[in-house]
Amino acid sequence: MQILEESSRPVPKEKAEFLEMVRRSYQTKADLYNESIGHLNSIDGIDCPLCKNRGYTEVVKDGFRGSIASVLVECQCMKRRKSWRRLQNSGLAGSINRLTFDSFQTPDEWQKRIKAKAMQFVQGQGGKWFFIGGAVGCGKTHVCTAICGELLKQNQSVKYMCWAEESVRLKGKVNDDEFESLIKEYKDVDVLYIDDFFKTRRNRNGDVQYPSDADVKLAYQIINSRYISQKTTIISSEWLIDELMDFDEATSSRVYEMCKGSTLQIDRTGERNFRKKMAV
Known about the structure:
alpha/beta
């Protein structure tokens, strides 16, 4: 109550004039900054007329008890720029312009079905998550990358996770202090694309090696966090949903639930291996 009484007192004329002079000085400085041209577009190719590619806009604000402050406000384009930088670091950025819906070839009905389902997902029809599993070379990475490209255009932040590489890195850091900050990136980003989920190799006898307990635990930490927060997740895998259920029901049941309406499972036949057909 005391604060309200003090704030309601009239400001002395001399102080009011001084504050107005300070405000004008701050505003002049802000105007000069806001008219300047930035060069972030030369790095990431994203052109923003709002901030003129500076990434920030300077705003003059009233502070506590008559104080005045000039602050930099992050432009909405920065979310997309930061996501693009992450994609570049991941190696996916080079694929965004190449692996699009337009370049996804659909000579057969099963390919038309993949493309249609993916485009429906981008348009908000179907599940919150997208899953495509099964045959090697059927275009899983292509269609998932195309989805990421479209979501980037909607100013959503996207992170790419190559499971075979990133899971090894994260498991190696599990006992380090930085582990939580590393895994937090995968939990919190708007859109996470996990490529080759639970990717495994064959042993010397040619038998398939199933994911380890450490793999299952790591997957659960990421998937369960995103399940709880309802954050968009895109998953490609050589496994089918039922197969994932066999060795990790806790994680896979969450994937199954969230991907209802946006699940594709491709038969493992020679006719479904598009890369193999192209090489013939």
